[in-house]
Amino acid sequence: MIEYYDISGCYILRPWAMEIWELLKEFFDAEIKKLKLKPYYFPLFVTENVLQKEKDHIEGFAPEVAWVTKSGKSDLEAPIAIRPTSETVMYPYFSKWIRSHRDLPLKCNQWCNVVRWEFSNPTPFIRSREFLWQEGHTVFATKEEADEEVLQILELYRRIYEEFLAVPVSKGRKSEMEKFAGGLYTTSVEAFIPNTGRGIQGATSHCLGQNFAKMFDITFENEKGERSMVWQNSWAYTTRSIGVMIMTHGDDKGLVLPPKVAPIQVIVIPVPFKDADTTAIKGACESAVYTLNEAGIRADLDARENYSPGWKYSQWEMKGVPLRIEIGPKDLANKQVRIVRRDNGTKVDIPSTDLVEQVRVLLDGIQANLLETAKAKRDACIVSISTWDEFIAALNDKKLILAPWCDEEEVEKDVKARTKGELGAAKTLCTPFDQPDLPSGTVCFASGKPAQKWSFWGRSY
Ligand SMILES: O=C1CCCN[C@@H]1CCCn1cnc2cc(F)c(F)cc2c1=O
Ligand SMILES: [Mg+2]
């Protein structure tokens, strides 16, 4: 999927990864086009004074910004930043383009790369200094429109994770401390990795309120001729989503790819036998591949002569291909094929006449099974707690913790301070929209004050 690169935190995305990214992009791009998003491409570079436009938007991030300071041997008269995100690149032009309510809503999306020179341990897909993403930046006349779109996009992110990557996620709202500092509120879809007991943010959808409108003077004349400030959203998901899928489904044989994002969904392998008719077997494999491709199923043939069938089985299992079809002399004679599932290893012989129908059923079955299995594993990690001791025990037990919280930032900071350590501190992951019942009199696990809500807490990536 990747090749390591001679700059730390940078990776080469090879076809097995890029094809997954392209399948996700195909779905998401089609969906946002239904919402009238327009494609743009803004420059990679942003000047220092524009980037510094808003102190509290950038302040904590300054160490991550990568700068161009020279061209050839000569210094640039002023350093130029490489975009870590595009608010400051785009919004001066939103200000120029938006004059009247007729110019609203403005709906801009760009598929691009961004650079953030992180120093914590670089990890392929999960934390890299350059990554691919889409960033949506939308502008509305009213808060109601913005609020509605934030949730529409969040639902698309849930679909990317649950319907395509087969990764269960929780929709919720970030705390004031964890939200995007420049915005009004942040919603996110949160995943969880049982093996490491860490939460991971899958995607985020922010309502920026009118904060950036104030900063960049983005105003419009409404129907009554009054000048007012716009309401904005911004939202993104990144190539990190591929890493979450890998960690969620992988097993000791390697990758396990959900069919919806598998570049090859079915690999067909001829199983020659000493005196059997290899030409007929290969012909049967080729027609199986053809028939499946005609039906819109991503099938391929592995007829390499220099590898044994067994060697091929292992290789395609390692690459996570959902289904393997074996055709040998016996299968040929019985006009059947043997199909092997990657997710649970079951083998089934089906008549060649039923090929497309059965493969579709099996692929849907694998997709559903992967999500259900991941959901069960994730749910088994969720524990509700009510006291500090229970919280610490659950944290050390690598759990995803649902805790009653007073919603005070000081308490959130205090929990971080009290759980610092080489595994990283505990933090709020999100306050799930789906709130369990909170009996009156329930107190916050950390402060003892009246609890306002249930929130997910845990260590994170
Ligand atoms: O998360 C999104 C969705 C897509 C558009 N951007 C928002 C907020 C990004 C928050 N963020 C995140 N990381 C950053 C890193 C930087 F180096 C930097 F200068 C700024 C930022 C920064 O603003
Ligand atoms: Mg960051």
TrEMBL record:
It holds the Pfam family ProRS-C_1. SMART domains: ProRS-C_1 (SM00946). PANTHER family: BIFUNCTIONAL GLUTAMATE_PROLINE--TRNA LIGASE (PTHR43382:SF2), PROLYL-TRNA SYNTHETASE (PTHR43382). SUPFAM superfamilies: C-terminal domain of ProRS, Class II aaRS ABD-related, Class II aaRS and biotin synthetases. This is proline--tRNA ligase. It is an enzyme of class 6 (ligase). Residues 19-258 form the Aminoacyl-transfer RNA synthetases class-II family profile domain.
